[in-house]
Design a protein that fits this description.
Blueprint lengths: L1 H73 L1
Length: 75
């Protein structure tokens, strides 16, 4: 009779252990996800800054080329 009782009790303990592991995994993944979202936001901002710098540099280079062509034509 005690064998019949101990088997379900063991299964319940096993289920409790698995649930605890799942909860730990969930918390770990939730923390990782939050961290990745913060990093992504940071990278998006950095990309925007770099695009702005690239656009500014392109504009300056195009202006220099235009001035050089004008100087060349006036010579």
């Amino acid at each position: 009779m005690s064998d019949l009782i101990s088997k379900p009790a063991a299964e319940i303990r096993e289920l409790e252990t698995r649930i605890d592991e799942l909860l730990k995994r969930y918390q770990m993944l939730k923390t990782e996800n939050q961290s990745l979202k913060i990093k992504q936001e940071s990278l998006v901002k950095e990309k925007a800054k770099l695009l702005a710098k690239t656009t500014l540099a392109k504009t300056k280079v195009e202006a220099m080329i235009t001035r050089l062509k004008a100087m060349e034509e006036s010579s």
